[in-house]
């Protein structure tokens, strides 16, 4: 395995479209990335882009130990269609007591199983992207990010009721349960919102709150 210096260390298991893209992005941001896949041609494709790369059966505990996987604090299981390999690999990483394990799921049921065997974070790329695009297609939001525990942030135009008064007097949190995090004037950069910030017509807002509350707020525009 070729070596390069970097800060965070992450092992990415499965170098398909999702895992390969993630591994490259992590490397570009200064992480030390070990990419593992069972397919030699796939590993060769990423060998020049990643810090380390290896061909291995990730359901084999001995193979993972030989690669030093137990020494990593962050791991991503990006195995796609092979559900059994995804689950067994995640379970092995959990047995290694890796403190931060992300795992890609192909369905909510798959995700629940991954959580049971030790994944700390489950990612549903296709579902999450479909949900995000659906919100954008409706035209209510300029951008949308949903987090766990029913919490989300949206980028949306300022509604009429927020215009012309300081945010501290608009009572948006009282009436809608949302918090304006940042404001962007046309032609200017985003700035942090304060209680004294006066929203103007045409401003773009970053708003945070419970998912249904930010969705309802975006409907006001």
Automatic annotation (TrEMBL):
Biological process per Gene Ontology, one example term: potassium ion transport
Pfam families found in the cross-reference section: TrkA_C, TrkA_N
Matches recorded under Gene3D superfamilies: NAD(P)-binding Rossmann-like Domain (3.40.50.720), Regulator of K+ conductance, C-terminal domain (3.30.70.1450)
Gene Ontology MF terms: monoatomic cation transmembrane transporter activity
Residues of the RCK N-terminal domain: 7-124
RCK C-terminal domain ranges (all copies): 139-221
Name under which the protein is recorded: Potassium transporter
Lineage, opening ranks: Bacteria, Bacillati, Actinomycetota, Actinomycetes, Pseudonocardiales
